[in-house]
Write a structure and sequence with these properties.
It contains 23 helices and 24 strands. It is of the alpha/beta class and 707 residues long. The strands form four sheets. A seven-stranded parallel beta sheet has the order 3-2-1-4-5-6-7. It is elongated, with a radius of gyration of 33 Å.
Amino acid sequence: MNISILLPYKENYSVNNAGAVSLFVNDIVNDSVYKKTTKIYGNTNNKKLLSTNYHNINFNKNFFQSLNYQYVESFLKFKNITNSDLIEIHNRPKYVSQIKKKYSNKLFLYFHNDPLTMNGSKTLSERKTLLNSVDMVIFNSKWCRERFFIDFENKNEIQKKTIICFQSSSKTSINFKQKKKIISFVGKLNKAKGYDIFGEAILKILDKHPSWSARVYGDEPREKITFKHKKLKILGFKNNKIILNDLKKISISVVCSRWEEPFGRTSLEAASRGSAVIISNKGGLPETTKEAIILKNLDAQSLYNSINELIVNKRKLLSIQKKNYNNFKLTHSYVCKIIDDTRAKICRQNCMDLFNIKKNRPFKIIHITNFNRRFNGRLHYNTGRRLNNGFIKLGHNVLTISDRDTIHNNRNLIDLNGKNYLKNKIIENANNFKADCIILGHADSVSIETLQDIKEKNKNLKICQWFLDPLGKNGPDFIKNNNRISNKSEVMDASFLTSCPSILSSKINNAYFIPNPADKSFEVLNNYEKNCKYDVFFAMSHGVHRGQLKKGKVDKREDFINKLKLRNKKINFDIYGMNKIQPIWGDNFIEAISNSNMAINLSRGRPVKYYSSDRIAQLMGNGLLTFIDKKTCYNDFFSKDEMIFYDDINDLSIKLNKYKKDFKIAKQIAKNGKKAYLQKFNSTIVADFILSKTLNYKSKFKFIWEK
């Protein structure tokens, strides 16, 4: 198993300045059965590193991007990162969405701090998204996990995707007769750690018990709290190995934090070395050892009383020391086995899933889009039905929900827009059908909360969306369409666009281009076999649901086509959806295109990479010689012997006249075009691309548009 571990940016993975996260990672990797195939990635200026399997992430800083974003992008550029069997992210939930864009294998997220204080997990929505985005969430204490699940429903069910994995320490033999009369404090010397409480109490203790001394390990440049005593040594920040060695001699260790400690490595290590541990009842501190003395009140007097009692009662002191040591179980090997077993279980499940997929296991799919049932066949020829045919031809079990029909037919005084009815219908279907995958197409009325609710009940469920409308900056409804595709992206395992994802206004996870699919059962004409009465077909509309021209509506395509007609009076055009000629639909559309040799594929807005309206599938698929603007870059997919590419209106005029005259060549290109389109962009191949990316399996098909 190849494992890549990503530390937080600026986490100091060094011998002399290592933090708790670095120490934990180093200790666990050293005991792991996957030690030889694990690589650790981080960013530090220190040259003396904890281990040799560490790789430093260096990058040229860009003032206009966050350092954390640049750090993760640089991590993803390392050779073989995206092919790792498992990536483990430590203490940075914000990194998850960025990594998911380019990585599709197993992903673990470790929390070493309170999730509600960290960017990327503060809100309920963020935490639900995280739970759906990773394969396992690992907490360093029960307290941290309880914080993560605040405001969740069905917490017991949800927690199946999480484990508690406490921090660990080595365990060495202790001679209790060699324990010295020393009291220790380890940590930042600030009020959050309770250093002021410790200092006030320890001065009284040292005055009363002159045979005892105290040692303080730590510093705090931002907060000056000063205590002086001839028996008090302030040693500053020390290497962890030095502290562990000193703890063998220390009798009492104090951890009196005011802040909610996520766990408490200091008290853990003190217990492993047989110290009597005094702690505050904050956060995960009580989970570090069951034998700790918990302060009744978090003040200097209470701490003084607890220390004084142990000094006076030597039997009690020795008893607590021995209980801490003898009952200590959180060794590196113990904790590492929990993690390794979890790794093996999750990745073994992945292998089982792949095995089932290779055996052509049929998936259960809920396909939610507008199937236009209320239009009585007028809009039957749509992409949703083409894709649906593809899913079924692949042998999958498909349950369809027509979202807009459902809303339209179920409005009432209580539910004015019908959305509550739709929500309940989707949830009921999901509960009863238990799908492997939910696929949405332009399903704007389906809320992100509905999808999150369903995913909470079905941990293995995958969700994706497809989107056909233009997304380019100079296209119609630019802001609206980009918002539509991004609004639910945080719960999507993949998103599929009929535009190149690079043109999106903001990046989203796992976005892929898909072509407009053709289907042999829909595209039944072979126009290249006959002499049609029209030269060129063109059709547009002011909206499929409107079904007719809208007064005052202006479309720049009308200007283009009218200019084209004026320049080419010998060309016989058949045009719909403009110049007071109503648009055509359904079988009337099929009848109309059967009468033309050629067609212009002209989409709304300026041409952008790979975008085309879904008309292209009908034009190419029915054997019309199809003309398209070069700036769409469709020459990445088709040759000049399959499709005609033009530069501008002048170039288009020349080529229309050329192929009207070169009749035989035009017919051959049209024939080649139909064959190529139905081979490369048919509904079965496009449907399998959607499923393979969403469900993470290797398809038997070759996708020429995937780079």
